[in-house]
Amino acid sequence: MGITNRFFVLVLVGGVSIATWMARPGNASQADANTKVIELSAKKYEFTPTEIRVPKGTHVQFKVHSVDEPHGAKLDVYPEGAKDKSTPGLVFDHPDENGKVTKGTDQVLDFLARAPGTYDFKCAKFCGFGHDRMKGKLIVE
Predict the structure, then answer these.
(1) What is the pLDDT of residues 27-63, one digit of tens each?
(2) How far apart are CA 131 and CA 21, in angstroms?
(3) Which of 86, 89, 92 is nearest to 78 (CA)?
(4) Do 49 and 115 lie in a common domain?
(5) Which domain holds residue 70?
(6) 66 and 122 share a domain?
């Protein structure tokens, strides 16, 4: 095997290792074929869409884009009416990002929709007198 062929094999093997590493579940910030990307538009007192449905077991990438001023989403991790609070139904890759708002940056939340139910989300930054009406529902089927 010539030096060129050895280099090619080394690059190919290295590329497979990198591709395998990127596909691991712990690297959920990388959207892949198993990820449902949801674009959410936020403007004063409303989200669009207000109701979102995903199948149980789906990895979700929730992208919140603010149209007029800084907004963000905070999702409940337990479904409506849940009595058992020992295991959350939504499992976040970075729990500290749920509800975090950074001016000038779209919010991106990566999570696994593990348990069926209805999960409320609301605006994470006070935006005026209609702020309490700014909410929606994520339904895991």
Answers:
(1) 444 456 779 999 999 999 999 999 999 999 999 999 9
(2) 42
(3) 89
(4) yes
(5) 34-140
(6) yes
